[in-house]
Task: structure prediction
Amino acid sequence: MRACRLLLILTGGTIGTAVSETGKRTLLQMGDGQEPLILKRLREARPELSIRAEIRTPYQVLSEHMTLSHWEQLLDCLREEDLQSYDVVAITHGSDTLAYTAAFLDEALYRCPVPVFLVASQRPPEDPESNATENFLATMDVAMRRSPETDASAAGSVYITYKNSDGVMYLHRGRELRQCEPGSDDFFSTGMIALEKEGNRYRSDTGGVQVRNTSWKVPEIRLRPNVLKIHPYVGIRYENFSLEGIRAVLHTLYHSSTAPKELTAFAERCKNVGVTLYILPCDPENYNYETTQELLEAGARPVHGMTEESAYARLLLGMEI
Result:
């Protein structure tokens, strides 16, 4: 029997709910030491694992109510643990803001020597159509196959295993995960990997999650708020956006790296008050419209090669993008 030291952090979300008699989803108020349903099912499905689980509940909220204070509480919870005494860290989380928390943790826990997984579901675990148990089983299967060391140039230690509506289980990197489309329960990312299933276990040709064997501690981090995030749309009026107290603006562009012409004047306004305006996705070496050139000349900084969730997390962490 193989020993598995698991740190399970419960933060709420659909995966932490049950259906009440009225049919509404309500959060289960789990205390430290109480085993959630997904952990009980893991023990049943993986009897060859001798699972020694430590359970923590820094907070329990539906993820649409996630705040920067919750993120800081989560880091404080991780900081109180000797993470290198565990084989796996699994954090339950709701799907609504999963991509934002994934990007934040992947940056904040850079080079963490222990694999950290976020586990979510589209329905409560007791629902027969829920992917909660399957997602958690895949998390454990991938995490327990990890390599002891990896190349020093590899970045990040946060992952997500999630079964989409096509029936395929995918492995995602935290900084690459994108928000679900409205009305969808499916997650996508640039480097997503379809996990094969052998019997009732999941495997990946990647050889599992690779981590470093090194001395490491959760860094002391306090977020820097007041980042304004703007999406373009027909009829947008930039005079409605106040820059008072704002230290950075993250403005997404249309698919061709363009935006309404009024954004150029807004870029000038940002520059005049000392607020940095970032635009993405924008590769300064590959654009075809003069409107983009005007934005760059007005002081906008192009962001390329990362998701908007990751760019937003980096700005909150006070990092350059």
Summary: The CA atoms of residues 170 and 194 lie 5 Å apart. Residues 147-155 have pLDDT under 50 and may be disordered. The first strand starts at residue 2 and ends at 10. Residues 68-79 form the longest helix (12 residues).
